[in-house]
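A favour, since you know our C-alpha cells better than I do. Go ahead and set the record down below.
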Amino acid sequence: MLIDSHCHLDAPEFDADRDRVVAAAIAAGVGQLVVPSVGAAMFDATRQMRERYGCAVAYGLHPIYVAEHRDEHLQALSDRLTREPAVAVGEIGLDFYVPGLDAARQVALFEAQLRIAREADLPVIVHIRRSQDQVLKYLRKWRVRGGIAHAFNGSAQQAEAFLKLGFKLGFGGAMTYSGSQRIRRLAAELPLDGIVLETDAPDIAPAWLAGPPPGRNAPDQLPSIAAVLAELRGLDVDTVQHVCMTNTEAVLGPLGRLQAGQPG
C-alpha cells in the first residue's frame, strides 16, 4: 500500500473536486493520506477529511501562518488532541525562508506545540525550510516521540541527526527534478528505512507538472514519485513502496485505509 505521508487535502484548492481527487488516488494505488492541519481555523476542515475519507489527520499551527496564530489557539490544539483521534501534532516547525515572518514568535509557538506533543505522547510532523539546525535544537530539548521531517532538503549530517531522534525523512516532488542534485543524492544514499513518501499536494508539484503554468499537485502522483525513488536507488518500485509504507506506520502507527467519499 502506498501512503502519502503529507497531503493538504483540506486545502481550498481541492474544494471543487475533492471526491474526484480521492477517487483518483485510490485508483492509482494510494491507500492512505496523512492530512496535517495548518491552523486553528482549519481544524474542523481537517477533521472532515477523516470523517469523509478515512484520512489519517494531524493538528498543528504552521509557522508560515504565524501572524494568524493566537495564544488561545494552543489551548484549542491541546483540547482537540484530547477529544479527537490524531496521528501526530503537525504541521509545526520553523520557516526562515519566507521573508517577514516573526522568528521569535515562531520559536515560541514551536516549543509550545512540542510540549503539547509530549503531553499527548504523539509524534510530530515538522516544517524545516531553511531551519533544519534550529528545528533539531528544539527537538533535542523537548524529546518528542519522533515524527517526520517534511520535505527534507538538508545535509547528510542533518539527516543523520533527525534519524537518531526517531524521525523519518519526507521525499516528494522536489526529488523528481534533475536539477535537484543534492536532494536526489540523499534520496539515493540515505538508509531506505529512514524515508517516507509524500506529495505535499497541492504544492511541490513533480517535474512532469512543472508547467508553465505549474499544475496542481495531487495524491495520485505518488506512484510516479515512488518510481523516481526506486530508479534513484536501483530497486524495484514494489520494494520501495512497501518499505516506505512500513516506515510511515512505524512512526505514526497503523493508519487504516482511505475510502471514497460518501454522499451527504
Observations:
- The first strand starts at residue 2 and ends at 4.
- Residues 2-252 form a domain with the TIM Barrel fold (CATH 3.20.20.140).
- The radius of gyration is 17 Å.
- The first helix runs from residue 18 to 27.
